[in-house]
Every structure is written in C-alpha cells, then in structure tokens.
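Incident log entry.

Two folding requests arrived from the same account within the same minute. Monitoring flagged them as a possible duplicate submission, but the sequences differ. Recording both here for audit purposes.

Request one:
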Amino acid sequence: MRVAFNTLGCKLNQAETESLVAQFSGSGFQVVAPGDMADVYIANTCTVTHVADRKSRHWLRLARRRNPRALVIAAGCYAQRSPEELADLADLVVNNGEKQNLFSLIQTLSLEGGGTGEGDTKRSQVPSSTARTRSLMKIQDGCHGPCTYCIVPKVRPYECSLPASQIIDGVKQKVVLGYKEVVLTGTKVASYKDGETDLGGLLRRILLETGIERLHLSSLQPSEISSDFLSLWEDDRLCRHFHLALQSGSDGVLRRMRRSYSSDRYAGAMNLIREKIPDAAVTTDVIVGFPGESDEEFEQSYSFCGQAGFANIHVFPFSPRPDTVAEGMTGQVGDRIKRERTRCMLEVSRNCRRSFCERFLTQTMQVLWEKESSPGSGTYSGLTNNYIRLFATSEKPISNQITPTRLMEYHDHGMFGEIVL
C-alpha cells in the first residue's frame, strides 16, 4: 500500500505529519511523494489564510484525479474549522483531535480493489536525504490567545503539553535514528509546562540527558525573552535563530490586533538577544493591510522593519478569517493597496536578508548539510547554526554531516561557501 502526504502551514503541522509518516511506514506502507500514484492520499491542511484553504482544496482535487480509486483524506486545521467545505473533496475528513488516530481509522476502511487503477504508476520515494537530518518534534499544542485576526484558537483551542520524559525519550530515539537536529515546535512553545518543568527546564534536560547535536526552537513571543532564558544559549548546540512574530511595527495596529507588546517592547527583546548572542538571527512575520491600517501606520511598520535588522521577514497580506474579530472590523483595506504594501515589505525583506548574510562573509561556521541541490551535481545545501542557507560543492557525499565552512559570496537564496578541510 502506498501513501502520500501533503503538508501545508506551520512547523507544528509538519511535526504531526512526521509522526504520521513514522506510523504508516512502520506498519508496512510505502510513503511516496505528494505527486505520485498512491492508494491513500492525506492532506494535512492549514487554514491560517484563504490561500492556505485554496491550496488544500487544489491538492485534494489533484489527488482524486490522479487515482480515482484511492482513499483521499483531509485532516488538520481546515478540516477542523469547516469540515463541510471538504466533504465533497475527501472520503474522510479528520479534525485535529483525531489526526494522530488516522492509521487506526484507515485500518477500519477497505480500499476497493486494492490497486491504483490505470495510468502512470511511476513513483518516487519521499527524498531520504533530509529524513535523518532534521526532525520536528511536537511538545505543545493549543492557544487561547486574544489576537483579533487569528483562527488558530478556534481550530486548536485546547492547550496541552507533552510529558518531559516522553519528549526526552523521543529526542534520544531521534539520535539513535541518525538525526543531527531536533526542532521543538508547538502552537505556543513557550507556554510549555509539565509539572514544575517549563520550557527552559525542558531545554536544560534535553541538553543534559541527550546527545543531540543541534536543538532548535520554533516561534517565540517578545515577552518570553529574558536574560535567564538566553543564558541557555551558552551551550552552542542550541541554534542561534529566534523567530519572533512582529505582525506590525505600528503600535496602533498592534493594539487593534490585540498583540501583547508594543513596538518598543519588541525592539527591547531584539536588543537583548543581540546583546547576549551577537551572531543570532531574528526572523519575523508581518501582516500588511490589516483593517484600518492607514498610510502612516504602514509607513511606521515599514520603517520599523527596515531599521530592525531582521535576518528575514515573512510577509502576509491580511486575510480575513471566518468568525474572527478582524473579519468584521471597519476599514477593510483594498486588494490593490495590500498588493502594493506587500511588494514594498518584500523589498525590505530582501534587503534585510542580504545585509544579515553579508555580516558573515569570510567567516567559518558549522553547517549541517541536507542534500544535493540536484542528484549527482555535487552541490549541497545546508544550514548554519544561525540558519543561513549555504551552498557548497563536495566530491564526497556530505548529507547529514556537520562541517566547518567558510562563507564566500551572497546568493539570492543564501550564500555560497567553501568547506574547510
């Protein structure tokens, strides 16, 4: 039996898919690429924007056309928010609470004929070059946040944390399997709590009790940055990359969004990171065209981002989500203005990325290599400890190896490097 997964959205979704892949492959399924012929197609959907919704529906239709006899399943946040919208596109619609029981659910269903029908049966295994390089591990789920634009509290409403002992055992297992890096992820990672163990305590235990070579955290909030917390990064196994969602550099917009910080407080968190960890990368998310965003407020956000020195900015035009406060706000910004503001902010992002990367020209940094850019090319792609994308040539295979590499030249997608022998 062949199964294909397609994952949209956040690192938490990716971590949950990784867990499902392990369940299915461990039970004898052959995991194939999303575009291949399969007996089972599973979309782990996202609903954070209308674009994510559209991508989910599109892939489900493609899967149905690729093999009309396959079992097509929609799972995840879109399935949680609006299962009726997916009912005609999928044989089974599974919400977030049932997602990890997917294998058991499928076992109760029969696939008529058991084949893939006529057509092109060419298939490729899911690329294995990164399968033992970096693993995403879910440690927490759920959010009760008040943000007026966000659908996540409606599709992941129950906050919970996995037991610390389970996470540590999981990291140890990843090490045995050959992973070099584990990314700890969740809806609100810093709200992690297991008895007396908070996120800082969990990090200390993982670093003390496991042999993982690199440990990486997903998104944090400015209020979660403190000197004591940052002292953990004295251990160079912690990746020097912090993703702090800004959303807007205008205090007026931040108040309408009901974010828990001002632009000054956000800047203070960034400054503290740079004081304690000078080579750290800070990346962010920014929404443009939020309801009521005036030209002056956009200029404030534009100026803040231009001066902040981000390593990268993920830019999103505002997308009204059903049943959120922002959906009903007055002053909805037109699509033409949102497109223009997106273009302007993306230009800031490109400039910021280049400036950050060029700070490290001629420096030698440790790089975890993932895979060849194309099979047989001898050009490999990997990430530094502070998450600069690097490309270098090697006569010998270096996938899943960490090597010292000199950063030589800026590239639109990262930097070119030279491996130091």
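Request two (distinct sequence, not a duplicate):
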Amino acid sequence: MTQSTLDEQETMRQKAHQIFDMVKGFARGADEVEITLATNIGEYLRFGHNELGQSQHSKSRDLSVRVTTDRRQGRASTGRLEKSLIEKTVQKALAQAKAAPEDPDYLPMLGPQQYRSVERYHEATVDAPADVKAGHVIFAIDLAKKNSLLASGVLGTSADHGSILNSSGLEAHHRATTGHFSLTMDADNGNQTGFALSTFADIRDLDAEKLAETALERARLNKSQADISPGKYDVVIDPAAWSETLLFLTVSATAGYSPDFGMRQYKEGRSYLSGRIGERIMGENITLEDDAYHPLQTGPPFDGEGYPKSKLTLVENGTLRNLASSRISAKRYGDAKPTGHELPLPNPLGELPTNVVIRGSGPTKTPDELVEELDSGLLLTRLWYVREVEARTKTVTGMTRDGTFLVENGEVKQPVRNLRFNQSLLELFTNIEKLSEPVRNTSFGGPTMIQPGVLARDFNITSVSVF
C-alpha cells in the first residue's frame, strides 16, 4: 500500500467516526445505535454510433441509521451528510422504533469482531487516466469503422468505501474497486449485432482489444440469419451470456425477489428448496459455493450487521447440503449456526448468499473448446429480458440476443434469428456436461456470480423472437 492509499483509508475511517459521534448525540434515549456509511465514486465513458457521447463523474453517499429501544427497531437513510439532515434521519429512525411492535427476533447488536483480510482496492483502477480509458473506447470505435460497423457501449469504473459502526463497539470497514466494459457492434440498425462484456477490479486485467475483437467477430458472423424450428437443442452458453438468468437461481421473483438459499425462507416454506436438504437437485458434476474470499469475488468479508462471512458449500455434487444462516435463524431454530449472510436489519426477507461460485468437477474447457465438442446445437452469446415463470422448478423465460449461432460438428455454421426459451434452471443444471473456467459477472442487483460457460443438453426453445 502506498502512503496516499493509507491516508485515504484513514480519512474514510475518521469520517465514519465523526458521523457516528454525531448520530449518537442525536439519538439520546436509544438503547443502541448503528450506522452504515457507504460512498461510491464512479467514472463512465459512454459511446454510441462510433462516437464518444458522455464522460460522467458521479459521487454518492448513503448514511443508514438503525436504532433500538425497548426491543423495537427503526431504520432511516439519507443521501446527504449535512448536520441538520443527519439529525432529521436519526429522528425518523427513532420515531419508527417507537411506533414499531416489539421484535420477537431482537438480538443485541454485535460487539467487536475479527475479519479475514480481503484486498479488493486497486489504485490502478482509481488512478487510470482518462486518456487510457478513452484509448480503450477509441480502439473499439476504430475497429468498428474499419469493418463498416457501429460500436456502442460503456466503460465504467468505481471505487466504493463502506463502514459499519455500532454502540456495542463493532467497527467494520471495507473498500473496493470495480469496473466493466460492455460493447455492442452493429452492422444493420440493430439486426446484425455482436456483444462482449468484461468485468474487473484492477483495470490492468482488462483486455480491451480482445473484447472488441470478440464483439466484432460475432457481429460479422451474425448476418443472413436463418429460422429454426422450436424444440430442444444442445447448447453452449458463453460465460458472460447468462448473468441475468442466474439471478433467478438465488431469488424468487414471484415471492417479491425473496432469497432462496436462506435458512429462514427454507424453514418457513418460502423457498423452492424447502424440505429438500439432502436431495439431488442438479447434476452430480455441479457444486455451488458461497465464498466471499474467492479471488474473483467482490464485496466485504462481513454481512449487513457486521457478522464475519463464512465460506459455505450450498450444493455439493448436485445435492443440496447447506443454507445461508444468521444470528436470528440460530436463535429461532437452534440447529442453525450463523454464517454471515444477514441483510441489514430489520430484515423480513431472510438470509442471502452474495458471493456465489459455480464449479464443475473434472477439467475445464475454454469457451472455444466447448463449441468444438458440440456435435449439433446452438451457441448462445447472450440471454436477456429473462423473467421467472414458475418458482418451484425455477423455470424462466427469455430471449437470445446479439448472436445466436447454429453449430455442426464443432464449428459455427450459420447465425439464426433470436429465439425465445422456456427453461427450468434445475433441469439445465442437471443437463450440463462440460464447463469452462468461471469468470466474474455481476447479476442485476443480486449476488456476484463467478460463473462458467457450459455445454448442456436439451435446452428448450419455444419460438422465434420477433425482436
């Protein structure tokens, strides 16, 4: 760590303590006080039709205050840190606590904890000059122009700082950098597109040239698309293609996006997994873990109340083994142990694994090797507009986009029109035969996924899409 990095880290901690002292002063009469302070600084280059369109710098700050009194809880938040608004936020939290019923799950706030170190903050990402980022974009634009295509997308980086402090002496801090480069190339007003995406913590890991070449190749191939009949097809799903789809493996949209791999949901019968511990729900070659310490993962080593996160095997060789838990579940059920997966309290939803890693048994393949081992079927480079249809089987519907290709004898032969699918994720994970090395890809508001590309049998295509 450089001296400037250490100084910045110390400044953020000092700021958190200053605000916490202010909150405690305004919260006289509360039994306990907790603050969660989060700061995000983002920089984004947006481009379209082969032109840089917007350079954006954003900074957001969010202070969330939780107070307890007589076993009642209240929480209020503000995006501004002026003294008067902090006081107003504290008063809202106090008013909520006084009006709330006594909480049967009330537990005293956590005291000091020990956390395993994770290093997810990269100065290279924070300090990357604008001309370096613009150079990545210009390379993609120039490549598109040379091939009579149009390039559109966004290159974004962000730095996040988070702190939890409470009146029982808990103090937890975390900081991280993240980034993403999404790129679409288009040759026919949206009818001949190719897409590529890369996410990173250290911008030096971004291979912008490879990303641009991937999008270019897919767009060039995606012309004169053929129609195919509905039916079940063997498929290769690109590693970056199914983030939006995998979100529904961990939450149930039909239950208000309630998490599924939590102990409280399981015990209350709110999860599609309820009553299925010990049952094989996926193929024997599939293991799902929640591992906050995986080198590709993001986020802090503690949960929403500051409890240290544990590595947890959720599905082992296809069989459901464990669930995310919390202090509340341990109190309620006795046979549960906290695993560090609580959301900020009060929390009616239950526990949520936030660092999911999908693993396969046996040697991994490259995405190209997966295609080479597909005798006949489809290469899916992007799935989008995915929605849950049936929670018990985890059946989702959606469409392919930005390059769907017919594969024969291990070679891409023909682009096809976009397709609509209806597919049970449990059946899909049962039919996976081979996997590539996992990559990091964040879901939409859900867990960070470390996800592979897969070769799977009998993917259910229902129709040709009109889009």
